[in-house]
User: Fold this.
Amino acid sequence: MRHSPPGYSGILATSPLRLAYRDWPGLVTAPPLVLLHGLGGRAADWERIAIRLARGRRVIAWDARGHGASAWAADAAYTSDAHFADVATALDALGITTCDLAGFSMGGGVAILCAGALPERVRRVVVIDAYPSPEMTPGSRQIAEVIAAYMPSGCGPPPFDPAIARAFADLLSEDDPRRLDLWPFWEAGTQPALIVRGAQSTVLTKALAVEMLHRRPSARLRTIAGVAHAIPIQRPLVLAAAIETFLESVTV
Assistant:
C-alpha cells in the first residue's frame, strides 16, 4: 500500500493496477463489508451509508479501475471480469479472507459475479438495482447512452477514463448490444442474498426482480419507495437500514 490521495485511507497495490480505497473501522468480530460503486461513481458515494454500517462492522470501498483516484487500465480493460479480478486481489491486499459484499448498479453486477465464482470468500451478498441478464433494460441503456456521450470538460480531472465512454459507444453501435450473462453466477450462488430495487427504477425492472427471485428462491427483495435507480445517493439512510437489517437477520 502506497501513500494515499487526500480523502482516502490508502492505495491497494493490486496487480496490475493500484486502487484508492476508503476504510471505515468497525467491530472486528463481524465480517467486513465491501461496497462496490456504480458506473461513473467512486468510493465517496458510500460515505453516509458506510458511516452508519461501520457501527457494527468494518466497511471498505474503493474507486473501481478507471474511476476517481484509482489507476486507469492501459489496455482499456473495464469488463466485469476485470472488476472481478480487482475484487479478488483487493481482498488479498487487505488481508480479508471472507467478507459480505454489496454492489450498486455496475458494482451489483460485479457482486453477482464474485458471489457465484468465489462462494468461499463472499458470505452474504447485496445487489442494489442491478441484474444478471445480458439484455439491456431501458434504464441501463439510457445510462449507457449518457456514458457513451461523455466528453472531458477540461475543467478538472475527469470522473472516469474516457476509454469507458468509447467502449459503451462501440457497444451501442451493435445491432444487439449485450452484456456478460451473469445468470449462471446468480443461480450458482448459495449464500444469503438481498436484492434492493428502487420502486420507480427502469434499470432493475419489477419483472426482472421477480425473475431473479424465481431463479434463486432463497433471495430476498426489498423495494424502496419514491426512488428510481440512484438509491445510494437519494436514499442513503434507507438503504443503509435495509443492508443492516439483512446482515443482522441472516446467518451463514
In short: The chain has nine helices and eight strands.
